[in-house]
TrEMBL record:
Residues 1-24 form the signal peptide. Pfam families: PCRF. This is Peptide chain release factor domain-containing protein. SMART domains: PCRF. One of its GO terms (biological process) is translational termination. Residues 52-153 form the Peptide chain release factor domain. Gene3D superfamilies: 3.30.70.1660. Keywords: Signal.
């Protein structure tokens, strides 16, 4: 491509970026300033260095597009708690060992997603399965908008596959439930829970109890927001049913024919 054509291609692309920048409100001015840098660069361009100008402008366009994509996504996450971190609770449902293995697969998926995004992600609770996998696990993702990103994961997740735990290699359907709650600072949760309304089934350390109460309070705040209620006096269920007829997502792995 001739140097003049490369420069023309860049200049033609710039108006599209400008239009997208104009549509953003709070960050528009900053993005326009960055875009203006590319126009300034063109003033010192000479025939001996058009490729350098093209590379600089092309990289700037990529950066602007990524920045605008992130900004547009944050505009969609406008819920009252979308800007907060997230707590993911995974529980194996119907399906025995396969369900526990499926729950472990989901746990690894969420942890690797957080690590890939370079988010502060940690497993704060993990109950191993009897033969394989896990019975339950809790993951904290400490980054802005984590709850907005992950709230759509709440529900029942199903997998259909040739079971590695079945001696006959039969196809097995298994379920796991996923709860997602905002990670809120304690001082922001003005929720009173009477001791008589709490049922603690297992003994645990004080730190674990505090975390559990914090997650419970966050869940109550989310429920209150969804129902537009000013008070919640009792907790009645609201747990995800990981069973037939309550599927949120599913994964089907075809059987492998061996000769």
């Amino acid at each position: 491509m001739p140097p003049s054509s490369m420069i023309l291609l860049v200049l033609v692309s710039l108006p599209t970026i400008t239009i997208r920048i104009a549509s953003t409100q709070r960050r528009g001015e900053r993005e326009e300033n960055r875009l203006n840098c590319s126009h300034v660069s063109s003033s010192w361009a000479t025939p001996s260095r058009p490729r350098r100008l093209f590379d600089e402008a092309a990289n700037l366009i990529k950066e602007l597009n990524k920045s605008l994509d992130r900004y547009e996504l944050t505009q969609l996450l406008s819920g009252p708690y979308d800007k907060e971190g997230a707590v993911i609770s995974i529980t194996a449902g119907a399906g025995g060992t396969d369900a526990q293995d499926w729950a472990d697969m989901l746990l690894r998926m969420y942890v690797r997603w957080g690590e890939k995004q370079r988010y502060k992600t940690r497993v704060i609770e993990k109950s191993p399965g009897e033969e394989a996998g896990i019975k339950s696990a809790t993951v904290e993702v400490e980054v802005r908008y984590a709850y907005g990103y992950l709230s759509g994961e709440k529900g029942t997740h199903r997998i259909v596959r040739q079971s590695p735990f079945n001696a006959k290699g039969l196809r097995q359907t298994s379920f796991s439930g996923v709860e997602v709650m905002p990670l809120l600072p304690e001082e922001s949760m003005d929720v009173e829970i009477p001791e008589e309304d709490l049922e603690i089934k297992e003994r645990s350390q004080l730190a674990n109890k505090i975390r559990a109460l914090s997650r419970l309070k966050a869940k109550l705040l989310v429920i209150a927001e969804e129902q537009r209620a000013s008070e919640i006096k009792q907790i009645r269920g609201d747990a995800v049913k990981a069973e037939w007829g309550a599927t949120n997502t599913e994964l089907c792995i075809p059987s492998v024919q061996t000769s």
